[in-house]
Amino acid sequence: MDINIDTKLNNTRNLLKELGNSVVILINSSPDVFEEPSIKSCLQDFLIVYEEAVERLENPNFRIATIGTTSSGKSTIVNALIGRKSRRNERGSLNPKAFLGTEISNCTNKGCCLGYW
Fold it and tell me: Which of these three, 58, 77, 101, is where a domain ends?
């Protein structure tokens, strides 16, 4: 059974939301317990991590870094990972900037290029 990435993200978002709701219910059912300093500190740490997880799931992203000599297959591997081709630039070279706001350093050192996708 294949589940696409959007379905997985939505399932994870729903589970995380359930976790957050359960924690709120737990806190509301026994507020005096959560006033104890060590428990309160742990809860605050949890809430920070929880909010970061919610934010990451709402705006998922990642970076791919490649390094290699000219024509060594850097763009080919990125194409395979993200499932689409980059466009060629004026010189006929592949232009990874066509992907996702790519940052590319100038090619130096005998054609060795560093790219972030």
Answer: 58
Q: Where are the alpha helices (DSSP H) in the chain?
A: 5-29, 37-58, 74-82
- Check whether residue 77 and residue 112 sit in a common domain: yes
What does the alpha-carbon distance between residue 94 and residue 88 come to, in Å, rounded to a whole number? 4
Which own/partner contact pairs does 57-62 have at CB distance under 8 Å and 24+ positions apart? 57/9, 57/12, 57/13, 57/16, 58/13, 60/9
Q: At CA 42, angle to CA 37 and CA 48, rounded to 5? A: 125
Residues 80, 49 share a domain? no
Give me the domain span that covers residue 29.
5-58
Instruction: Write out the chain's pLDDT in tens, 117 residues.
Output: 566 888 888 999 999 999 999 999 999 999 999 999 999 999 999 999 999 999 988 888 777 778 888 888 888 888 887 776 655 544 555 554 444 444 444 444 444 444 444
Same domain (yes/no): 9, 33? yes
